[in-house]
Amino acid sequence: MKYPIGIQNFEKIRTDGFAYVDKTAFVYKLASEGCYYFLSRPRRFGKSLLISTMDAYFSGRKDLFDGLALGKLEQEWHKYPIMHLDLNTEMYNTVEALNNKLNLALSEWEEQYGSNPNERSLGTRFEGCHPCR
Hints:
Layout: H1 10-15, H2 24-33, H3 47-58, H4 69-73, H5 95-113, H6 122-128
């Protein structure tokens, strides 16, 4: 079996035959018991793979969880909208750089989920730009 050295994509690991240590029961527990979480782990400690796994779960990708704990735990598979904000794409050494990144992400989500023209600041746009409103 191949080891997924440097691979942080759950779908790739599952579909390309890489070894995977099943931690999906924790994903199920996070999703079914909690509310808000702040993920804080050291560098190179699996945050990106965890987010990728959660993305697959909330996208309703039941096929990727065959043979894993979550595949047995989840009885009702649903597809949920996902708003993923990756801040690892550049350095944010100015307020303008961060504002540009947030503006781009919000514009994409607003295009996908709709927007309110009265929401003008980043804060009000984040408040209003969620798929469940």
